[in-house]
Amino acid sequence: MDNEALLARIVQIEYAKLDEYSLKQMYLEETGEMLDVEINIYYSSDYIDETEENGFNGTIIHLYDEKQGINQMYNIPRGTQVDYSDWSLGDEWRPNDAVYDLIGVFAGADDTQFKALEQFTNRVTAEIEKNTINSAIELEKNGLGHSLGGVLITMLQLMEGDYNNVNTFNSAAPSVYKMAMVDRNFLNKIIDELNLHIREHSDLYDLNAEKLEAIAEKYYQSNADVISHIVDPNDILEAILSFPGFFEVGEKKYTYSENKDDVGALKEIVEQIPDELVNDLQSFIAKNYGSIYREEGFDGLLEEFLGIHGEAIDEFIEIMADGGPESWQDKAVFLIKIYAVAKRIDEKLPEVLELVEGIRDGLPDFLQAVEEAGYMSKEDIEKVLKQVDGLIEDLSSIQESASYIINNLSIFNLFEILEHVENIKERVTDMQGKLDVIIEHLDPFLQVLGESAVAHKMGAIIKQLLGNGKKIDSNGDILIKIPAEGNGSSSEIYVNISSAARIFIRGTSFLEQKKDLLRELKSTYEEEYIDDYETRKNIIIGKADDMSLCPSSYQDLLGYFTPDTKYFHKIKRINVDLKLEPLPDSGFKTPFNNLFSFIEKEIKEEAEMLEEFEEAIEKLFEKDKEIGELISV
Fold first, then answer.
1. Which pLDDT belongs to residue 632?
2. Exposed, middle or buried: residue 397 (CB in 10 Å: 0-12, 13-18, 19+)?
3. How far is 620 from 503, CA to CA, in rounded Å?
4. What string of DSSP letters covers 319-359?
5. What is the DSSP letter of 143?
6. What is the rounded distance in angstroms from the CA atom of residue 125 to the CA atom of residue 40?
7. Are the C-beta atoms of 114 and 153 separated by less than 8 Å?
8. Theoretical Cys-Cys bridge with 152: which of 30, 77, 185, 495, CB 3.0 to 4.6 Å?
9. Quick check: 161 and 185 in contact, CB under 8 A?
10. Coil, helix or strand for 481?
11. Structure confidence by residue, pLDDT tens digits, 155-192
């Protein structure tokens, strides 16, 4: 399967859950041919324990046909998936993929999803090789991925180097920090090249990023030859490629979204962010939160950053929803919990505050770049900076209140403590208001980010890869443009090829099931009636032959006699006049044969209909090809 649009659609449907029917349908839609091979699909949820996955999901497809010489594996780690508009997620509110993007991709400080991919890949590959142990066809490995999934499969190929092809779509770029974490040989290469002594992974952030990138690109060059990226220049992941530590590998092909006017605009703005600020942010995340996220996941990260564990959030919300603590005892317990939170805030907030102040220092240059790109005015810049200054003031006030609670914890200071708790609450509310103002003045730029988010999605990529004469509707169906014949005009119409493919694929599957059922019915009929009758008849004939050959064996049939009379009443010969009729045709066999003939006739008619349907689909593809060639000319 080397059709780019087909590969992209496979990656897209994997988000929902890829199955054999959808794979065959997409293959028919894109090639006009049936995927006539043995198909096995493996899901990571069946091979990776929840405690090991940390948000990882993926699918592996195995195609096999000995006669056609096909033995192919397609490894598809899933990309980032978070729907922030849906807050009815129950205990799935934790945005594991988004956090992994920040910790693992941006900062390069986590390897949990990559390890899950390795485990899934190794386990499924071993199962495939076991199932095809007698095959002379070598297993061909192919990798596919979008976004986070793209960088995961890219990293796997860079490290292992045993894939025949890797195709990614709007993939995140690998980073030297991440590769050094998962690939010990690469880390040793860095140490040897730069003559270093590195105690911890976080020490890498203190090194020159450009030198590290150059080492990585050279080190992984040979394994990168089979990697191909399809990228929309408006994608935000393409824009942040200029950030320290990210390096490029493989061949890159650009496909442009509909909004071509802003191509590169986001990248130009992002490039104005000082490398020092980005590196400080990467280092801050890696040193303070990388190990926590690896060991304790999102809840541990939340506690490390805000001082509150995920389970505590649920508890506080439940208590306050019931009107708060009522008795003095409950108030004392609640006060102790507030103290614990205040203690954590007092420990962690200074680091966060320092980071925000660092962002504030680099913000004017970034906002000026946004202004020069035409997305905000000088007045907007002043208002944004004012609000950011207000956020720093709010954070400082929250820290002061947390310190007061810690230093003055007493039942006699309950009133003052509650005032500081109220101050924290008000400051948090004020911060939300300031963020709203910042967003309002950054709205034109945020729209560019929104367009970048649209360009990042698989749907936008697929739309560009479908080629001339095709488009995709709101339901995801593929429409092919063909001339409208018979009306005397030169107009054109769009035909829903997906609908036709669905009917054909499902019809073919139903027909095969019908054939299997008929075979089972015939086999059961032969076994339960025809064969059983012959078995019973042979038993009777055998018994008759035995009576003729050994008549004395049946002496007891005459009854019991005294010993002296047995001489006169002795069986010397038995004649058996046996005539067994065959099963009657009219009374028995005919109804069954009529039933089988009726089903066979149905199968034949349906097969002919599907054959005509297949020919019609092939003609649609011929028309599509003609239209595409005319448009290209």
1. 43
2. middle
3. 15
4. HHHTTS--SHHHHHHHHHHHHHHHHHHHHHHHHHHHHHHHH
5. E
6. 12
7. no
8. 77
9. no
10. strand
11. 999 999 999 999 999 888 898 988 998 999 999 999 99
Edge-to-edge strand ranges of the sheet holding 251-254: 38-43, 58-65, 70-77, 140-146, 165-169, 227-231, 251-254
Spatial CB neighbours of 73, under 8 Å, sequence gap ≥ 6: 60, 61, 62, 124, 125, 128, 139, 140, 141, 142
Q: 108 with 324: CB under 8 angstroms? A: no
Token pair of 512 as six digits: 């095969």
Q: What does the alpha-carbon distance between residue 106 and residue 374 come to, in Å, rounded to a whole number?
A: 27
Contact 71, 132 (CB under 8 A): yes
Q: How far apart are CA 21 and CA 509, in angstroms?
A: 9
pLDDT digits (tens, 9 = 90+) for 65-81: 999 999 999 999 998 65
Token pair 């947390």: residue: 402
8 Å CB contact between 76 and 144: yes
Q: Which residue type is seen at 321?
A: A
> In the chain, what percentage of residues exceed pLDDT 70?
73
Burial environment of residue 326 by CB neighbours within 10 A (0 to 12, 13 to 18, 19 or more) = exposed
**Cα–Cα distance measured from residue 367 to residue 169, given in angstroms and rounded to the nearest whole number:** 30
**Confidence bin at 264 (pLDDT 50/70/90):** low
Q: How far is CA 605 from CA 34, 516, 609, 614, in A?
A: 20, 16, 6, 14
Sign of the alpha-carbon dihedral angle for 41, 110, 391, 358 = negative
SS3 64: strand
DSSP labels, 4-15: HHHHHHHHHHHT
> What pLDDT was estimated at residue 455?
65
pTM comes to: 0.65
Do residues 619 and 500 make contact, with C-beta atoms less than 8 angstroms apart?
no
Residues 6+ apart with CB under 8 A from 43: 17, 58, 59
- For the stretch 380-420, pLDDT in tens is 999 999 999 999 999 899 889 889 988 887 767 767 877 88
Q: What pLDDT is recorded for position 413?
A: 74
Average pLDDT, the chain: 78
Q: What is the Cα–Cα distance from 142 to 92, expressed in whole angstroms?
A: 31
Is 70 strand, coil or helix? strand
